[in-house]
């Protein structure tokens, strides 16, 4: 050990080995610089030399320790010799000699012993150097451990993983790789490695190399071991109780010498926010038919497209939207694209601005094959409703446009409208009509928005239902059954009184708060509020509590339609208004004329309740909603409209549902009445819409979602 010199300076250790001294003398003899220059080079060893030096210091420490142990008492030396002999016998199979070849890997416990050979200056393995510590910990022991400290027990021997026997100068060392935690017995230790297969092309052939990352030093290069795990199928790791099981992950193809998978090119995809949902026939099917008839499928779309005038007048509702998505030109293009995508056979639009309809919508829809009917709202607002249908699928029978504003009725002072179109389904073969179906009544409306005026909404709905009833009655008079589809923006949420009136056909309204009719706002905190009472509307409206026209009103309507000019109201009709609330208010500038303007109405004839009007309003149309208003699976409520104040369901498609077939003696055949719902376009929840930055956005051009349903009707029905 006289030839090895160790210098300690502030914890930094520099070791000069025999091989370094030999190399230094060799370089000097060849004239490769002065001895001082060579010493400077030797002071800056490479990372591999540092690691070799570290192992040599372990060898030197063990040799010093052996010399100290030889000075122990004869009895203690005999005991230690016996223990060492026993240990060497147990680990005999794990010791490799230099003749085993370089680069070979063993899967056994590694024990390294060294003995100085004084003849050739080499060191051969003879004694255990691995004392259960990693090389870094062994270096610390050189500076702190006492030479007389006891050796650890055999259980603390560290399991060392694949090693390569290398020769550095004249010193042969065995490099340690991946020290593993101590195990109780060698037989119970399971090897688990994260393995990567890298394909390396050498001489035109591909070979697999198993790459192990060094755990000893960050500066140590990776060790590539060839010839192992040629059939590697993936990663293996322990699992289960006691880590007794082994799991395998499928192999990923990594690029050569990389720990990361290759980056695939991103393929563009389209997010489908709304999907087509088919109706479960087992839940809605009527009794099986005893025959098979020709049928026709058609689709109906209802869509509030948000008039640009209304958007500009209520900009506070759309502060969450980028300005570009609010531009009408941009929204109109998206709207037409959506209509063209779904290709509905019947299209019911609300909030259609008059100038936009004539300039953009009507020309585009006509090109798509639609025949359109438009009705603008009364008053100063420029929007209205439009009903369009494909002339290749339907022929027009009649059209009725409705105005809900009635100057003679104080209750109906709002300018909302409706459209009722009676169509006949046809099946065309070229220009020849191949088959016809029963008449189909399509009604489209937009009721009053004001959440506090539920009484007005009920009156508007009653007018609509009464007119629909008249159209259906005219079809029945001709011996035909008429199917019905009622679409629109009803400004009422599901399960509230107005919705119940449509779907159940009856509503007891006496004493209900006016705000509760639609349920758009909860105003129950208000101490005082308008409550509904009998009669809900005056008899002068000509609508009964069963939502049907009275005979007198129908006759008066016909007479008015036949007249033109100013005198379009009969004397009898005007007499009905003589005691209305408006007529009872005396104008301030009205001149007093005895016997003419000084007559006060008889108290017995003023504010007398209409005994023909009950506490309940009803209809006989048998309607059902296409949507169930709750998303399947999640249970979240569906939303048809959304703005900065929240989302709700106010748009609906109601239809006359198909019932069981009945035998019609007059026709001598089975009569199938009603429509069969086949499917609908799913709606979305409020949280999903907010994740898309609300409405309108780059996908949906309005603050409402379109409603779309597919129906089936029988062509042979009578």
From TrEMBL:
It comes from the Eukaryota. Residues 301-704 form the Endonuclease/exonuclease/phosphatase domain. Residues 36-46, 64-86 have a biased composition (Basic and acidic residues). One of its GO terms (molecular function) is 3'-5'-RNA exonuclease activity. Residues 87-97, 145-156 have a biased composition (Polar residues). Residues 25-50, 64-105, 145-171 are annotated as: Disordered. This is Protein angel homolog 1 isoform X3. It comes from Gymnodraco acuticeps.
């Amino acid at each position: 050990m006289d030839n090895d010199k160790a210098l300690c300076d502030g914890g930094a250790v520099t070791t000069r080995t025999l091989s370094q001294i030999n190399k230094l003398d060799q370089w000097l003899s060849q004239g490769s610089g002065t001895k001082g220059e060579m010493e400077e080079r030797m002071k800056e060893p490479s990372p591999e030399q540092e690691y070799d030096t570290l192992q040599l210091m372990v060898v030197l420490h063990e040799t010093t320790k052996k010399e100290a142990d030889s000075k122990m008492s004869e009895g203690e030396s005999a005991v230690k010799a016996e223990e060492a002999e026993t240990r060497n016998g147990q680990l005999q199979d794990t010791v490799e000699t230099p003749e085993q070849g370089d680069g070979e890997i063993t899967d056994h416990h590694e024990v390294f012993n060294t003995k100085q050979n004084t003849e050739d200056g080499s060191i051969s393995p003879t004694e255990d150097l691995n004392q259960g510590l990693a090389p870094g910990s062994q270096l610390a022991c050189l500076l702190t451990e006492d030479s007389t400290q006891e050796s650890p027990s055999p259980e603390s021997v560290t399991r060392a993983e694949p090693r390569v026997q290398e020769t550095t100068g004249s010193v042969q060392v065995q490099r340690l790789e991946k020290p593993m935690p101590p195990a109780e017995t060698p037989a119970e230790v399971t090897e688990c490695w994260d393995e990567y297969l890298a394909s390396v092309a050498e001489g035109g052939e591909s070979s697999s190399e198993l790459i192990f990352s060094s755990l000893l030093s960050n500066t140590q290069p990776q060790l590539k071991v060839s010839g192992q795990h040629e059939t590697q199928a993936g990663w293996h790791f322990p699992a289960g109780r006691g880590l007794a099981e082994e799991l395998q992950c499928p192999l990923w193809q990594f690029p050569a010498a990389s720990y990361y998978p290759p980056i695939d090119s991103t393929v563009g995809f389209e997010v489908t926010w709304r999907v087509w949902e088919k109706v479960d026939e087992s839940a809605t099917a009527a009794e099986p038919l005893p025959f098979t008839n020709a049928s026709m499928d058609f689709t109906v779309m209802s869509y509030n497209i948000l008039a640009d005038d209304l958007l500009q007048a209520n900009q506070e509702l759309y502060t969450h939207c980028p300005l570009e998505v609010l531009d009408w030109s941009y929204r109109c293009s998206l709207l037409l694209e959506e209509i063209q995508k779904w290709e509905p056979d019947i299209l019911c639009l609300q909030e259609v601005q008059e100038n936009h309809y004539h300039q953009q919508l009507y020309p585009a829809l006509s090109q798509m094959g639609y025949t359109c009917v438009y009705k603008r709202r009364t008053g100063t607002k420029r929007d209205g409703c439009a009903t369009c249908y494909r002339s290749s699928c339907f022929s027009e029978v009649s059209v009725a446009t409705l105005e809900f504003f009635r100057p003679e009725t104080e209750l109906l002072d709002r300018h909302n409208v409706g459209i009722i179109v009676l169509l006949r389904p046809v099946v065309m073969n070229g220009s020849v009509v191949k088959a016809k179906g029963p008449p189909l009544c399509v009604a489209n409306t937009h009721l009053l928005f004001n959440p506090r005026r539920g009484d007005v909404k009920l009156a508007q709905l009653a007018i609509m239902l009464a007119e629909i009833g008249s159209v259906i009655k005219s079809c029945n008079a001709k011996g035909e059954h008429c199917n019905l589809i009622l679409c629109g923006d009803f400004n009422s949420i599901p399960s509230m009184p107005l919705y119940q009136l449509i779907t159940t056909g009856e509503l007891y309204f006496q004493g209900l708060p006016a705000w509760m009719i639609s349920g758009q706002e909860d105003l129950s905190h208000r101490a005082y509020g308008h409550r509904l009472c009998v009669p809900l509307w005056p008899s002068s409206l000509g609508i009964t509590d069963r939502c049907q026209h009275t005979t007198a009103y129908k006759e008066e309507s016909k007479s008015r339609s036949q007249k033109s000019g100013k005198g379009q109201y009969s004397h009898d009709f005007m007499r009905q208004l003589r005691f209305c609330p408006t007529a009872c208010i005396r104008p301030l500038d009205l001149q007093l004329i005895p016997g003419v303007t000084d007559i006060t109405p008889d108290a017995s004839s003023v504010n007398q309740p209409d005994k023909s009007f009950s506490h309940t309003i009803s209809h006989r149309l048998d309607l059902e909603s296409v949507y169930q208003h709750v998303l399947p699976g999640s249970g979240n409520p569906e939303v048809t409209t959304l703005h900065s104040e929240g989302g709700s369901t106010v748009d609906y498609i109601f239809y006359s549902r198909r019932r069981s077939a009945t035998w019609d003696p007059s026709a001598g055949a089975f009569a199938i009445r009603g429509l069969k719902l086949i499917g609908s376009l799913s709606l979305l929840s409020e949280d999903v819409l907010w994740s898309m930055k609300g409405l309108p956005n780059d996908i949906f051009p309005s603050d409402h979602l379109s409603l779309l349903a597919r129906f089936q009707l029988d062509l042979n029905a009578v």
